[in-house]
Fold this sequence. Notes:
Blueprint: E1 6-11, H1 16-32, E2 38-43, H2 46-53, H3 55-66, E3 70-74, H4 75-80, H5 84-89, E4 93-95, H6 98-106, E5 110-113
Parallel strand pairs: 1-2, 1-5, 2-3, 3-4
Helix pairs in contact: 1-3, 2-3
Amino acid sequence: xxxxxxxxxxxxxxxxxxxxxxxxxxxxxxxxxxxxxxxxxxxxxxxxxxxxxxxxxxxxxxxxxxxxxxxxxxxxxxxxxxxxxxxxxxxxxxxxxxxxxxxxxxxxxxxxxx
Length: 114
């Protein structure tokens, strides 16, 4: 796939409104309207706990997933916050992201940080 058509959203802001009105809204619409070929949301830090515990965010995430958005979480954050199993049960990929994020930045990939 053409790297120029891949978007990564590094989601670190656990504010519920920001999560709904920016991260979920943009990611979902980006896929529905074909603005990008692929959108990956990287769940990092406090957002791991928000996703694991907030039913509204889980519903928004399900809609985004149905539109084709991929969700992946930092394994260290998930373990430290005690939410790894919760995230995996929601269909979130849970992997080490430090080196991957570094590579995205070094390769100058399309990355939005929220």
